[in-house]
Amino acid sequence: MIRVAVADDNKELVEVLIEHIEEQEDMEIAGTAHNGEEALEVVEQEQPEVLLLDIIMPHRDGLSVLTALKNKHNINTKIIMLTAFGHEDVTKKAVEYGAAYYVLKPFDMEALMANIRDVHRESLNSQVLTGTIPVKIAAQQSMEERIKDIIQYVGIPSHIKGYVYMQEAVKLVMEDMHMINAVTKQLYPEIARKFQTTPSRVERALRHAIVVAWDRGHTHAISDLFGWSQDSALPYKPSNSEFIAVVSDRLRTEQI
């Protein structure tokens, strides 16, 4: 059995990860943590074979946890970093500090389970061969895939028109950032032309998509996207342009 520990301050995500891990015949939960200090305690006490570690956490961030574990020679836990940000500098630091995988949120659960098995398998092989494990970084998605993943992550269902319109809106703003300042005169008409509808229907569909996402209660994902506290209620529903701008800014941050 692969003993897996999970460290993330998003308690809802931790519960989802626990559920998926426990469904695997070859895995079991070795412990959970919601901040960096707890993560260190879990690893030291339980000695899991794999740790899923969020980068942004209270008390100690993921990179600090990585550094501390790297200096403990009796710890053989392999670490998969989980983060909503794909900044290249952070990726390099995570790899430098000893991460085996670096996975962007939102992620496919089945792919993550496969990553856990890969890390564990290579760990066993490396103990026999060289005592080291090769570093891997999860493959970068295309821009369209990332847009789709983020929209799904916050809870916009794929069967409503606003889902497709939101993808197109973010894509257009990514191509021309000035469009975010002219949503009524340029952005909505451009989307309307492509989908043979009217700008007002595009605007209403986008608004409906945001309302649906908020009503579905994916508070952890929305707070993650907007940088709000995970421990409090969502402060407000953003305007169409604000939502599109936030998603676009997130994607630009990943490209830096």
Automatic annotation (TrEMBL):
GO biological process: detection of stimulus; regulation of sporulation resulting in formation of a cellular spore; sporulation resulting in formation of a cellular spore
Cofactor note: Binds 1 Ca(2+) ion per subunit.
UniProt modified residues of type 4-aspartylphosphate: D54
Main location class: cytoplasm
GO cellular component: cytosol; protein-DNA complex
Domain Response regulatory: 3-120
Residues annotated to bind Ca(2+): D8, D9, D54
Gene Ontology MF, one: transcription cis-regulatory region binding
Keywords: Activator, Calcium, Cytoplasm, DNA-binding, Metal-binding, Phosphoprotein, Repressor, Sporulation, Transcription, Transcription regulation, Two-component regulatory system
Subcellular locations according to the entry: Cytoplasm
Required co-factors: Ca(2+)
InterPro entries for this protein: CheY-like_superfamily, Sig_transdc_resp-reg_C-effctor, Sig_transdc_resp-reg_receiver, Spo0A_C, Spore_0_A, WalR-like, WH-like_DNA-bd_sf
SMART domains registered for this protein in UniProt: REC
SUPFAM superfamilies according to UniProt: C-terminal effector domain of the bipartite response regulators, CheY-like
Pfam family, one: Response_reg
Function of the molecule: May play the central regulatory role in sporulation. It may be an element of the effector pathway responsible for the activation of sporulation genes in response to nutritional stress. Spo0A may act in concert with Spo0H (a sigma factor) to control the expression of some genes that are critical to the sporulation process. Repressor of abrB, activator of the spoIIa operon. Binds the DNA sequence 5'-TGNCGAA-3' (0A box).
Protein name: Stage 0 sporulation protein A
UniProt gene name: spo0A
